[in-house]
Amino acid sequence: KKIANKSSTDDLTKIEGIGPKVTSLLSDAGIITFSDLGATKVGVLRSILAEAGNQFNVHNPSTWAKQAKLAAKGNWDKLKKLQDELNGGV
Fold it and tell me: Can you say whether the dihedral through the CA atoms of 56, 58, 62, 68 is positive or negative?
């Protein structure tokens, strides 16, 4: 596991469908930046959520990587447009 360095972490809650509890799960898995999230396969994200328990079954990480890649590049306008089209992260 990576140790999260607060100065090099991104606010993953800016990604539609990710809240503080999911951010904590991702951090525990070493996913602490938009770049980390953007490089993580959906299957890995689904596994992290599944291992955390049934209360996380409602989360669908299928668009998280795409959103994170936009955020990592600072494309906030494109990210906002994408999020406006999403419903609960999907």
Answer: negative
